[in-house]
Write a structure and sequence with these properties.
alpha/beta; eight-stranded mixed beta sheet; 36% helix
């Protein structure tokens, strides 16, 4: 992809701080003050933290709010192909010229001061949002919560915490309780707080923080419930005030019904904008969130596979994501279909933890390199991790080569089922190959 003007500014901004992640709020508050505090001029904010399901929850909430006729700003991370994907201004990915101008303005106001890349780009998002009218603003936490750059919002309209699991231990702590404490740092006194399914070690920490601030959290399976129907592709959402029969969200996987339930609970808990039940039903039908068990159909990559093959893409990259993928792949008949995982991952991720749940549902792992500026794991290491997890592991030089290997080994009566996964960076690489850019 050609380098844009915003890419050149982003490259300069990466050099303003020698450490990519350095959790703090002081540097950002300093810059925001120079920018006339745009974070204080946003429409009502819904703030979402957690380990898994943040992006899907945000996407579903956005769809519901837009179905109700509201203009919605959205800030998410990371991106898949273009950095601008992170900033949706009133429903649209920020325009290139506007993005470049705002980045340059933040760069000039910062005047070379020490600041992390995520902090200054978050300031740019706030500036873009403050200058365009909207009814609602949804912010996804970048990392953790307590000291994340998005946590400068003093009083959001509602707060959501998706399932917490082990991830980013070097920055958040090496126990689930410690990580949950960081995520719970976004809870504010007097602000409605909705909590998704949690491990027994995480929930008491989140509940304790809420209690400390005088908040009665709305907890999954206590205050709100999701009951998937065995047949019919629908589910029931209930809370203390309502019961709704709803179509399954357009996002794939039973876990997406729970993510949808969290989004619904947030929509009902906030009081800033009106969201009728009809908008909830409509929003579930058109929500889109790329690289989350996304089926690829009719792309150049499908052409490498034999007729009848299925191809999916997922960016999950931790043990909890492995569990979700297991549930999805368990629906594939192992007699009728062979299942291959084409996998790439960063070195800092838990490859063995991700792969362990997939033993018994994945026939073969083909490890590939990732094109990114991070520290990608060597394919040989990933293939060995697959073998250790009880799955046959081999290596390919790239995704097309891996797909060719699948085709060459496919049985004519067992069409292959292929999932490309293990990293959002790999997912971004694949979307570039297919030309299916997030819009």
């Amino acid at each position: 992809m050609d380098t844009t003007a915003s890419d050149k500014v982003l490259a300069r901004l990466r050099k303003l701080h020698p450490v990519e992640i350095d959790l703090s709020l002081d540097r950002l508050y300093r810059l925001l003050e120079k920018l006339d505090n745009p974070h204080e001029k946003l429409p009502p904010v819904i703030h979402v933290a957690g380990t898994n399901g943040k992006g899907s929850t945000v996407a579903t909430l956005r769809a519901i709010a837009e179905a109700a006729g509201h203009r919605v700003h959205v800030y998410t991370s990371p991106h898949l192909v273009r950095f601008a994907e992170r900033i949706r201004v009133a429903g649209q990915i920020i325009a290139e010229d506007d993005f470049t101008a705002i980045l340059e303005e933040c760069e000039a106001k910062n005047a070379g001061d020490d600041i992390t890349f995520f902090e200054i780009t978050t300031a740019a998002a706030f500036l873009a949002f403050a200058r365009t009218p909207a009814d609602l603003c949804i912010l996804e936490v970048g990392l953790g919560g307590r000291l994340d750059a998005t946590n400068v919002i003093a009083r959001p309209a509602a707060v959501g915490i998706t399932p917490v699991s082990m991830d980013h231990e070097a920055f958040l702590g090496n126990t689930l309780a410690a990580i949950a404490g960081e995520k719970a740092g976004i809870i504010k006194a007097g602000v409605p707080t909705v909590v998704g399914p949690q491990d027994a070690e995480a929930l008491p920490v989140i509940r304790a923080r809420a209690t400390e601030l005088g908040v009665m959290p709305l907890v999954f399976d206590e205050d709100w419930h999701v009951l998937p129907h065995v047949k019919g592709g629908s589910f029931r959402y209930t809370d203390g005030r309502t019961e709704m029969e709803l179509p399954a969200p357009s996002l794939v996987g039973e876990h997406q019904m729970i993510n949808a339930g969290l989004a619904i609970a947030l929509a009902r808990a906030q009081k800033a904008v009106a969201i009728p039940d009809a908008a909830i039903k409509a929003g579930l039908g058109w929500v889109r969130w790329p690289a989350r068990l996304q089926e690829l159909v009719g792309t150049p990559l499908n052409g490498f596979l034999p007729e009848g093959a299925s191809l999916y893409l997922d960016g999950g990259h931790n043990p909890a994501a492995g569990q979700v993928i297991r549930g999805f792949l368990a629906q594939v008949d192992p007699v009728e279909r062979s299942v291959t995982l084409i996998m790439g991952m960063l070195n800092r991720k838990d490859a063995k933890g991700y792969l362990k749940p997939l033993a018994g549902v994945v026939d073969r792992v083909i490890a590939v390199p990732i094109e990114c500026d991070e520290d990608p794991a060597e394919p040989g290491f990933l293939a060995a991790a697959a073998t250790d997890a009880g799955i046959s592991g081999i290596v390919a030089k790239d995704v097309p080569s891996a797909l060719k290997m699948v085709a060459e080994r496919a049985h004519p009566e067992r069409p292959p089922f292929v999932l490309i996964g293990g990293s959002l960076y790999l997912a971004g690489n694949v979307l570039k190959m297919t030309g299916e850019l997030p819009a």
